[in-house]
Specification:
Chain lengths: 114, 118
């Protein structure tokens, strides 16, 4: 079975500050990991994904994430927050014989203060 | 590329009626489509997975007779909420994957449909 835990349902940072959104996963098979962003009343947009290539993954809008197998983590970071980064962020895992099904974390709402 | 659309974006219906939501992949062939529902301030809950030309696979606890899913072509899947009740009010999101059976392949999400049952 696979699962995802996002630590912190709400994170608030100042504009220009480091963004760190935490994601830990559990998987009995090599996982594929994703970060998605959702703006209000919209669908999800892929930020980045880990598919067993490089452990440091760079995504869109300046975001990146590092896969750490020893810590079963896939935390999302951005060096400098912009006001436009305020949104809901979801970490998700898939793998094994799940047919491409994604298991989502609970989500983290990011607020950016001016 | 990889655009998924949903129609309608918002619908209000009366209790007891049925509502159909369409999910289309506009620029790729979607062998697998997924339907999710999302309650306010919550994560996405997978309802079912559908592969073109075959019956949908429903997640545990999802009533297949209430949420009818049809994936008749490689670009269209529909979700019909039958005999809708207020508790069915939610945000319904579809996603599509262009490659069958590949967990490493991302899903492309539609913009969602807000269903309100009065």
């Amino acid at each position: 079975a696979q699962s995802v835990t996002q630590l912190g349902s709400h994170v608030s940072v100042s504009e220009g500050a480091l963004v760190l959104l935490r994601c830990n996963y559990s998987s009995s098979v090599p996982p594929y990991l994703f970060w998605y962003v959702q703006y209000p009343n919209q669908g999800l947009q892929l930020l980045l994904k880990y598919t067993s290539a490089a452990t440091l993954v760079k995504g869109i809008n300046g975001f990146e994430a590092e896969f750490k197998k020893s810590e079963t983590s896939f935390h999302l970071t951005k060096p400098s927050a912009h006001m436009s980064d305020a949104a809901e962020y979801f970490c998700a895992v898939s793998g094994g014989n799940q047919g491409g099904k994604l298991i989502f974390g609970q989500g983290t709402e990011l607020s950016v203060k001016p | 590329g990889a655009v998924v659309s949903q129609h309608p974006s918002r619908v209000i219906c009366k209790s007891g009626t049925s509502v159909k939501i369409e999910c289309r992949s506009l620029d790729f062939q979607a062998t697998t489509m997924f339907w999710y529902r999302q309650f306010p301030k919550q994560s996405l809950m997978l309802m079912a997975t559908s592969n073109e030309g075959s019956k949908a696979t429903y997640e545990q606890g999802v009533e297949k007779d209430k949420f009818l899913i049809n994936h008749a072509s490689l670009t269209l899947s529909t979700l019909t909420v039958t005999s809708a009740h207020p508790e069915d009010s939610s945000f319904y999101i579809c996603s599509a994957s262009g490659l069958a059976g590949g967990p490493q392949h991302e899903q492309y999400f539609g913009p969602g449909t807000r269903l309100t049952v009065t």
